[in-house]
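INPUT
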Amino acid sequence: MFEKVLKDPVHDEILFDDPLLWKLVNTSAVQRLRRIRQLGTSYMTYHGAEHTRFAHSLGAYETMRRVLIHLERECGWPNEHRHRQLALAAALLHDLGHGPFSHTFESILGVHHELWTHRIMLEDEQLRTVLDSVDSMFAKDLVSILKKDGRFPAIEALVSSQLDVDRMDYMLRDALSTGVSYGQFELARLIRSLTVRDDHVYVKRQSLHTVEQYLLARYFMYVQVYLHPVTVGSDVLVENILRRARDLVSEGISIEIPGALLAVLNGKDVSVDTYLQLDESVLLYAFHQWSRSDDTILADLADRFLTRRLFAPIVRDEPSVSEWASLRTMAKAMGFPPDYYVTERVSTIPGYEVLGQGLTLLDDFDGYSDLSQVSKLIRTLVPSQEHRLFLPKEMLESDNESLSKRVHSIVFLRP
Amino acid sequence: MFEKVLKDPVHDEILFDDPLLWKLVNTSAVQRLRRIRQLGTSYMTYHGAEHTRFAHSLGAYETMRRVLIHLERECGWPNEHRHRQLALAAALLHDLGHGPFSHTFESILGVHHELWTHRIMLEDEQLRTVLDSVDSMFAKDLVSILKKDGRFPAIEALVSSQLDVDRMDYMLRDALSTGVSYGQFELARLIRSLTVRDDHVYVKRQSLHTVEQYLLARYFMYVQVYLHPVTVGSDVLVENILRRARDLVSEGISIEIPGALLAVLNGKDVSVDTYLQLDESVLLYAFHQWSRSDDTILADLADRFLTRRLFAPIVRDEPSVSEWASLRTMAKAMGFPPDYYVTERVSTIPGYEVLGQGLTLLDDFDGYSDLSQVSKLIRTLVPSQEHRLFLPKEMLESDNESLSKRVHSIVFLRP
Amino acid sequence: MFEKVLKDPVHDEILFDDPLLWKLVNTSAVQRLRRIRQLGTSYMTYHGAEHTRFAHSLGAYETMRRVLIHLERECGWPNEHRHRQLALAAALLHDLGHGPFSHTFESILGVHHELWTHRIMLEDEQLRTVLDSVDSMFAKDLVSILKKDGRFPAIEALVSSQLDVDRMDYMLRDALSTGVSYGQFELARLIRSLTVRDDHVYVKRQSLHTVEQYLLARYFMYVQVYLHPVTVGSDVLVENILRRARDLVSEGISIEIPGALLAVLNGKDVSVDTYLQLDESVLLYAFHQWSRSDDTILADLADRFLTRRLFAPIVRDEPSVSEWASLRTMAKAMGFPPDYYVTERVSTIPGYEVLGQGLTLLDDFDGYSDLSQVSKLIRTLVPSQEHRLFLPKEMLESDNESLSKRVHSIVFLRP
Amino acid sequence: MFEKVLKDPVHDEILFDDPLLWKLVNTSAVQRLRRIRQLGTSYMTYHGAEHTRFAHSLGAYETMRRVLIHLERECGWPNEHRHRQLALAAALLHDLGHGPFSHTFESILGVHHELWTHRIMLEDEQLRTVLDSVDSMFAKDLVSILKKDGRFPAIEALVSSQLDVDRMDYMLRDALSTGVSYGQFELARLIRSLTVRDDHVYVKRQSLHTVEQYLLARYFMYVQVYLHPVTVGSDVLVENILRRARDLVSEGISIEIPGALLAVLNGKDVSVDTYLQLDESVLLYAFHQWSRSDDTILADLADRFLTRRLFAPIVRDEPSVSEWASLRTMAKAMGFPPDYYVTERVSTIPGYEVLGQGLTLLDDFDGYSDLSQVSKLIRTLVPSQEHRLFLPKEMLESDNESLSKRVHSIVFLRP
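OUTPUT
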C-alpha cells in the first residue's frame, strides 16, 4: 500500500495514495512553488500571509481528491484510473507557471502565467518524464484541461470555474494565514453539493445556501484581503521597481541583476529553464542589489519595499486630466519623478458571472436553473471597481506644509 | 488615542497603543525579520511552516502586552511607563539578531545571534534613534534585560526563561502553521497563573496543571517538529553547503556570492550594516548561483536543497570508529566526498531545568516550591539525545545493489 | 481584587470583576436559565445544540464587557460606574423571562417572554435584593432599558438592536454548538467598529464590510439553522402537544401534569414564583407522563417527541382552501385528527430593517448614512416567508399505498 | 446510495452509509440518550458541558467508521460486512445503559450501567427487532463484545481499551464543550497509528509520541475537568439527595416521586422498560418536587442543586477519626445533619495500566513492546488519589464567627 501523508493547517492531512502524484510533487518545477507566495505582496498588509503556492497546490490536490471520493460514491464518476489521475494532476499542477509576485510580474511582462503553466508541462524535461510514464498523451491532455478545450468538461470545471478546487482551497488557506474569518465556508458540505451528469458538474438545488455562503466568502476576501489598498500599493511599488529596472536596461544602463530576471525583463525567447529559475528569493535579492544602485530612483524604490515604506493609498474617484497634471507637477516639484512615484490603479472586485460560466442548479425533479435566477444575494454580486491613487507618504506629510496642503487639496475630495 | 491593530492568526488582533512600539515595528531592522523564517528549514518537512520571525516578534510583543495587563490588575506591576516600555520593547526586539536559517548559520559562523541582537540594538542608527527618544539609557537597559544582568529580574524572566512570552507565542504559532496540535496550551490561563513579588515572577500553585500542559506541549513540539529528522537533515544540508562555500573561499577559489554573505563567511569585523543585509532571500539566491557553480560539490548540494532532494536521516546509536570509517570509505567509493555528504548529528531534546532557572510555585500560604518538586511529570522532562546519521538517499538505493547492501549493513542496526 | 473567571467555548474566558454582576449570576432566576436551551427544539435537528440560555447570558454579558472596554478607550463612554453596571446587568439579564421551548411556549400562552423578564426583575425577591443594593431605581432602570424607553439610548441599542451583544453572542455560540460555520463573523473587529456620540451608537464607515459579514451570517443562520424545516416541525409538535393538553384541561378532563404547568396552561394570574418553576425538565417530564396518558392523541404526540418521530415537513406554497380541506379529510380517514396532526406554518426570515432601527454609519467627515444606502448586499436582506406543511410521515408512507398516493398528490406540487 | 449526514461540532460530519446503523440511531433506546448529559454534573462547573451521551454515541460511531476505513486500507481488516456492522453498532450502542447523572446513580443503586447496556440490547423489543434483522446472534455478539469475552478481540479493543473510539470521541467532545484545550490530540494521526494483526490491535512504534499526547490529554482532562472539585461536590450533592430520598422511602415516609425513579430506588426487579423511562429530565423534575417537600433535609438539598448552592470542596489529607468526629459534631450543632451534609470523597486519577490492558507497540522489525517500556512519560501515569471533604459553605462562613473558626481549624491543615 502506497501512502504518504502530509500535515496541513487547512485540511489536517493531505493524503497521497498514487505514486504518480507523489512523483509529481517531487519534481523541481513543483518544489519551486515553495519560493512563491500564494498572495504576492499581501504579507505587507497581513503579516501571516506567507503561505506558498506549493502549499496551495497540495491543498487543491487534496480538495480534488475529496471531491472525487464524493463523486464516485454519488454518481460513479470518474469510473476510470487515468481520468482520476488527470483530475488530480491538473489540480496539483494548475499553478506551475506563476512567477514571483505573480500578478505584478505578469502585468510588467505582458505574459499570462497560464501560458507558462502550459509550456512547463510540455517542455520541462523532468516533469514531462513523469507525465509520460502514464502515456504520451497525458501531458497534452492536462494542458487541454487547463485550457478548457471542452474535451474533459467535468474535470475542467472542477479545476477552473466559479466553483473549483482552486478557490475552495485558497479561500480557506488565505483566511487561515491572514487570520480573518471572511473566507470561511462549509467545505465538506459544498463538496457534497456537487454532482456530475453527462460529464458536466452541477450543484444540487437544496445546497443553494451553501453555495451562496461560498460565493459571499469570496466577495469578502476580495474587499477585505485581495484588494486591500495597502496590498495594491505594495503591488504598485513592485511594479514601479520592475518598470524602472526595465527602463534602465532598455536604455542600456547597466545594473546589477540576476541573469534570469534580466532575460525576462528583456522579454524575448525566454526558455522554460530560465523562467523556472525565477522565484521570490531572486526578486528580493535583486531588490537588495538595487537598493544600493547608483540610480537613485531604483535605489529608493527598492529600499522602500525592503523596509516597508509603502506608497500611501488614496481611495477616490478617477482624477480628472487637470488634477492628474497638477499632481504630477507637484510630485516633480517635491523630487518624486511622477512616472515611478504617482500611480493610479483601478481594481475590479469580480462578481458572479452568468454568461458561459454560471453555476447550474439541479433540483429533485431534474430541473435546471442558473444560480443567479434563484438567489437575490448572488445577483448583487456584479463586478465593481475601486479607483485609487498611490503616492509617497512624504508628499502628504512634507516638512513644507504648504506643499503638502496643495497635494491634499488635489487628491482628497473633501478637505 | 493612538491605536494600530494588526490581524493575527494566533492572537486574532495585535494592538499597538504606544507610538514608541509602533515606531520600533517600522524600523528596517525589525522589518528585515519578515525575510527570516521562524522555523528555519522546517518548511521542508511541514509545508505550512513559512511564518516569519517578524510575525513571531509581533506575537511575543502582544503576549507581553497581555501579561502586563494581567500583572497590573493582579499585583500593580509594572507601575511605571518606562518599565512597561522596556518590557514591550524587549519582547518585540528579542530576535533582532537572527540570521538566515538561524541556528545553522550560527553553528557555521560560531557567533550567537544574541550577540548580534545586542549589537544591532546599540549600533543600528535608525533603531537607536527611536530608542534614544525615550532616554539615552533605554537601549542599554534593553541589552541588559536580554543579557539577564539581573537589573530587571521580572522583565528578564518574562522575556527569557522557561516560561516566557517568546515560547508562549512561538509554540502556538508553530503549531498553527505546521498544522499540528502538539504545541497547544491554555494561553489565557497560563498568563493568569503568573504573579510578581519583589520584582520576581512566580507561578500560582493552583495553576500547576496549566504549567504542566505548557511544558509538555514544548516537549511534544521538540520531538515532533523542531527535531524532526527530515528537518535536521535539511539543516545539515544547509550547513554542508555553507561549509563547502567557506572552504572554497578560504582556499581562494572564486565563487559567485552575495557580498554580505562573503563578508560573513570570511568571518571578521562584520559591521551591523553588513549583517543586516543578510536574510533568507540572500541565502536562497546564493544557492541559486551555486547550483550552477563549476564546483560540482557545491553545485550538487545547492541543487539538492532547491529541489528538495534532502539527505536521508537514519536514527541510530552513535556509530563506532570503524563503522564511521567504513561509511566514509563507502561514500567516497560511491562518489560522495564524505566531508560534505556523510554527517552525524546529535540533537538534544531539552528538559525542564531546575538549576538557576526553575519555575517557582507560590501557594496560598506563601510557600515556595520548585515545579519539579511537585510534579512527577515534569521530573521526567530531563534532556535526552538523539543520534542520527545523514547521507544521500542514493547511497541506500544505488543501482549497484551490492554497494547499497553494504551501506545498509553499516548504518542499520538490524537488517 | 475581585475576579471570577469562567471558561467558555466561545469567548475562551468570561471575566467577572464587579461583585454585583457575580451576585446576579448566582440568583436562582439566572441559574434557572441552565435548564432552558438557547435554541429550543433545534437539538432535534443539530444534535450539538444543547447549549443553554444561561451560557448565552454569560456570553452576552462578556460581549458587553468587551464593548464597554472598547468604547471607554474610543470615546470615553460610559464615564460612570452605575452606567457600566446598568449595561452589564441588562446584558446578563435580558433573557430572564424565557420559558421552556420558548417561542413555542409563547405562541401557546400568548404572553411574550419580554414581559416576564420585566416582571421577574421587579418582583423576584432574591434578584430584587441584589439590584436594590445598587439603589432603589436600578431595577426600574433596567426594565426601562429592556423596554427601550429611550432614557439610555446607547445601552438600549447595545442590548437590543440589529447590532447588539445578544446577537453577537448567540450567533457565534449557535454556530459552535451546531457545528456550522454559517454564523461566524469578526467579533473583535465588529466591536471595534462601534462608536458612541451624544449617547447614540454608530458604526464607523470604514467597517462597512465587517457589518455586512455579520448581517449575512445572521441571514445564513436563519435559513440553515433557526428555520430548518425539521426544527420548525419539532416546534409544531411541541405546540400541538401543549394545545392538546390545554384543550383536555379546559374540557375538564383530568391529566397528570406538573402544577406550575397547569397554572400556566390555565392562563390567568400566574405568579412570578410559579413561572420560575417552569423549565425544560418540567416540560419533558410532562411529556413523559403524557406519553402514558389515557388520551391517545396526547399520548401519541408526546411519545413522538420523546422518541423523535417528528412530523414530516413539506416546503410548498400556501395550500388552497380545497387542498386544505382534502388534506384534513385524508388525515381523519387515516386516523390522525387534523387539528393536532396537520399544521401549516409560515416562517419569516427577517431582513435588515431601516425604519426606526437602521444602523447608522459615521464617516471620517462626520457624515451619516444608513447602512442600506451604502450596501447593495444589505438591501437584498428583506423579510421573506417560507410556507410549510407538517404531517405524520405515516400519511406519506402508509401501508395503504393508494391513500398515501392521494396525500402525495395533494401536498406535493409536482408528482 | 444510502446516505445520511449529521453536522457535528467535533467531527464536522457524521456519515451513515448503512441503513442498519441509521435504524439503530432512531430507536427510542438510543434517542433517550439525548436526555442524559455526557459529563453528568460537570455543567455546574463548566457551563458549556451540556453535550449529551447521544452526541457522544454518534461521535464514537463516526470515529469507529474512520478507524475501519483506515484499517481496511492498512491491513484489509475487517474483511466482512457483518464484522463491520458489529464494530459500528458496538460503538454506537456502548453507552445505552447509562442512567441520569450516571456515575452518581450507579453508586447509589449499586448497579453498573454496563449491565443495563447488556440488558437493553437483549431485552428492548424495538432495538432487538432491528438487531435481529441482521441475524439472531447479532445482539448476543454485541453483548459479547461489550463484555470483552475475547471472541472478537480487535473490535473489543477498539470499543473498550486504553485506546478506544469511546475515549477518542469523548475527550475531544468534552474539551470542545467545556472550552478547554486539555483534551486535544491528533485524532487522524492516532487513527493512522493503529494496525491489526491476527485480530489484535497494535500501535505502530513510530507513533509513540502521538499516543503519549493522547494519554496525557486524558490525564489533563481528569485533573482539570472530570475530577474538578466543584464537579465532585455536585456529584456528592446529587448522591446525598438520592440517599435522603431512598432513606425516606425505606422508612415508609411518602414523598412525591416519579414512578420509574421510585421503582429504581426501591431497587429490585426493575424492568428494562421502567429503566428506560429514567433520564435527567425525570431526575431534575424530582428535584423540583422535592425542593417543596415537607422533609426539610430533602427540600434543602434539592433546592441547593437547582439554585447551584453547592457544597464547598476542601482538598486535604484523609481526616483522622477525631477530626471526623469533631466535624460531624460541629455540623450537627450548626443544623446540618452530618449524614447528608458532610461527606468525604476519594477520587482516583487513573493511570496507564499495563497488566492485561497495556498498549502494545509494533516496530518495523516485528518487535513488540509495551508502551510503558518505551515511554518514561507514560510510566509516570500511575493512579493517584485526591481526598476531599465537602460541606455547606455556611459552615465555613457562618454568622457565628467562632463556630466558623472552629470548622476552619478542623478542616484546613494550615490556618
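end of record. Chain A touches chain B at residues 6-10, 12, 26, 28, 31-32, 34-35, 43, 46-48, 50-52, 54-55, 58, 176-180, 258, 277, 279-282, 284-285, 288, 306-308 (CB under 8 Å).
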